[in-house]
Amino acid sequence: MKTKRCPSCDGRIRIYYDHEPGDEVYCEDCQKEFQLMSLNPVILDSFDYDEELYFEEEEEY
What we know:
- By secondary structure, this protein is mainly β.
- The protein has a single domain, classed as Rubrerythrin, domain 2.
- Helix content is 7%, strand content 38%.
- The protein contains one helix and five strands, in the order E-E-E-E-E-H.
- The protein has one helix at residues 51-54; strands at 2-5, 12-15, 24-26, 33-39, 42-46.
- The strands form two sheets. A three-stranded antiparallel β-sheet has the order 3-4-5, with no helix packed on it. It has a two-stranded antiparallel ribbon with strand order 1-2.
């Protein structure tokens, strides 16, 4: 298992041996989610998205 420091809060993010690029990982302290871009070296991409883009309200007909 590898660990990486969270860029937001300096907490610990665990990267397990069965993780692959594209997997989602999260910080244990602030619960922020990241996408694993690379394993060697460990590169993370933040999931900063606007909830409105993904959770649109359903219209009634």
